[in-house]
Amino acid sequence: MKIIKNFDLKKILNLNIGGKALFYAKVQNLPELEEILRWRKTKGVNLKILGKGTNILMQEGLFEELFLQINIDYIFPQDQILRVGAGTHLNRLIKFCVKNKLKGLETLWGIPASVGGAIVKNASTKWGEISERLSNIKVLDLKGKKFTIPKKMIPFSYRYSGIKDLVIYEAEFKLEKTKESLDEKIKNFFEYRRSTQPLEYKNSGCVFKNSLEFSAGELIENVGLKGYSIGKVSVSLKHANFFIVKEGARFSDFYNLMEFVKNKVKEKTGIELEPDLVIWKI
Asked: If we measure between CA atoms, which residue out of 148, 82, 154, 89 comes closest to residue 115?
């Protein structure tokens, strides 16, 4: 395990917007994770956890913290139970399930996240949430103590888990054996996403949270903001809850566009949109 100083995080974040980390490390297994948490404790630096960096909007500048990327990647099957490393890409897990005729996670196909990050955000599509098939998670607290937390102890709700000050290193899922063609299902999910989302461009994913009462994209479209831009960031013409990010975009472009959209929707509808992205400011 290597600790890098003044690491440029922009190159590993999906939006290609961001600053530098005073310290950065990537861990491949549990002993490395335990080691880096001991190191952090001796240095007294704050910790930020990175999965695949797909839902983070980060300000430029130097963050005097330790940024830890979890790359613990494995899938251990036992009948319909899967133990999965938190750094495993969600699509890799779903491909494994499809190959082994295990039903339950295929509705999440195409979400660009690690398993751990998906759990922390309770990643979802219109067809289901990752928490529905979760049995438990294995975590370390910031002092390095290990816990197993059953799903029933986690306050999951839409795009929320309540997990903080804990580092997930493994998750367990309980799935169902099926004779269905899961290959066909994930193809259909992908086609739906491609037809409704701007996958052909570098984009943010959902900028604002939806709710049972409204679709954020529909609200933004209805107030006439499709295509509206600030600097090198614009509201998608295909899906108004996605922002298109051009080369050279800055944090201020994206953040100011978020604030403009949020204020316009509040002014016209009385509804205050809540960010779905994680926003890191210095």
From this structure: 89
